[in-house]
Amino acid sequence: MFGTAHPPYTMCFRVKFYPHEPLKIKEELTRYLLYLQIKRDIFHGRLLCSFSDAAYLGACIVQAELGDYDPDEHPENYISEFEIFPKQSQKLERKIVEIHKNELRGQSPPVAEFNLLLKAHTLETYGVDPHPCKDSTGTTTFLGFTAAGFVVFQGNKRIHLIKWSDVCKLKFEGKTFYVIGAQKEKKAMLAFHTSTPAACKHLWKCGVENQAFYKYAKSSQIKTVSSSKIFFKGSRFRYSGKVAKEVVEASSKIQREPPEVHRTSITQSRSSHSLNKQLIINMEPLQPLRPSPSEQEEELPLGEGEYTSFQSLALQAYPGGMREAPTLGTLVNGLG
Q1: What SMART domains would the database entry show (predicted)?
Q2: N or C of the chain: less Cβ packing under 10 Å?
Q3: Low-confidence ranges of the chain (pLDDT < 70)
């Protein structure tokens, strides 16, 4: 599992299924863990947003981890000491300082973290783990799965959202992934091409898991699915675990003393953060999900130019591939 690594080992956990409504998270510890994941998504360019939203999210992070603005403790350009975004211009830093000084004063860490979650969950790329592929025209596309349904992005724009209730079947054959949906009694099929059969199978499994988790009311309704109509041919897979509605219901019944929250401070050293990122890269699963160099597109500015496309940012953050750290646990399965 660890290859040539030596102890002490660094274990990286991440959120697998993002809560659709952070308001329903009961315990502060769970909200804090989700906050850490969102902060990570922001730094790695996975959560795309406008300039104004980026400034607000950045200010929430600063407020949560530094507290109220204090001219004696926070000199000019104090934001530049911290790495919050993959591309952090002086203009963005000045806007973060403005919001931190004037709008968030008095907010405790839990309140600032909660406000970040409320903003983040409204963004189109909230919870999206982008899978690179090509559509039927050969255009580079990114597929993802959210609580709302199956999503398709080109550059930084969402071009498709198929709700889980409208998704009839997910399947794959070789390097081609298919989504069969139905709207107003009409069926349609979308086809996407991945770099390898292994990447395609991984994409299919992610889709099956997300559909089962978000679509069904009870885990007992989940059935084993096959990638092929032919019996004993193709891959068979079944999601095992609670579904979203069961998790929310179970969390509402929790009766215990709230767990203590041990918060970590914001990263100040760029070199130390680079080391942490390298540790994560070294632990990536060997999923061949990165497009070839010929498939890479130019960066496309979004809003005021602080964010670019999924492809350019994701490849910068993960030179070893598009996937993040291995999925070792699921936050919402312990939703409190």
Answers
A1: B41, FA, FERM_C
A2: N
A3: 1-3, 228-234, 266-336
In the chain, the domains with their CATH numbers are 22-125+256-334 (1.20.80.10), 131-239 (2.30.29.30)
Give the Cα separation of 68 and 177 in Å (integer): 49
Q: In whole angstroms, what separates CA 265 from the centre of its chain?
A: 21
For residues 5 and 309, is the Cβ–Cβ distance under 8 A?
no
To the nearest 10 degrees (0 to 180), the angle between helices 28-43 and 109-120 is 60
CA–CA distance, 2 with 99 (Å, rounded to integer)? 43
- Residues 152 and 135: their CA atoms lie apart, in Å, by 10
In angstroms, the CA 21 to CA 14 distance is: 18
Rg (CA), the chain: 21
Count of CB atoms within 10 A of residue 320's CB? 15
Q: Which contiguous run of DSSP H or E holds residue 237?
A: strand 236-237
Q: Which residue has the tokens 């039927």?
A: 136
Per-residue pLDDT reduced to its tens digit, 227-273? 765 544 567 788 888 999 999 888 888 888 989 998 887 654 443 33
Report how far residue 254's alpha carbon sits from residue 41's, in angstroms, rounded to the nearest whole number: 29
Residue 8, preceding peptide bond in cis (omega within 30° of 0): yes
Q: How many CB atoms lie within 10 A of CB 149?
A: 21
What's residue 2's pLDDT?
Answer: 59
Q: Residue 285: what pLDDT?
A: 31
Quick one: tokens of 171? 């399947």
Tokens of 98: 């403005």
Helix intervals (H) in the chain: 28-43, 51-66, 90-102, 109-120, 197-215, 244-252, 270-282, 310-317
The amino acid occupying position 312 is S
**Among 241, 235, 243, residue whose Cα is nearest residue 177:** 235
Q: For the chain, how many residues are written? A: 336
Give φ, ψ of 53 to 5 degrees.
-65, -40
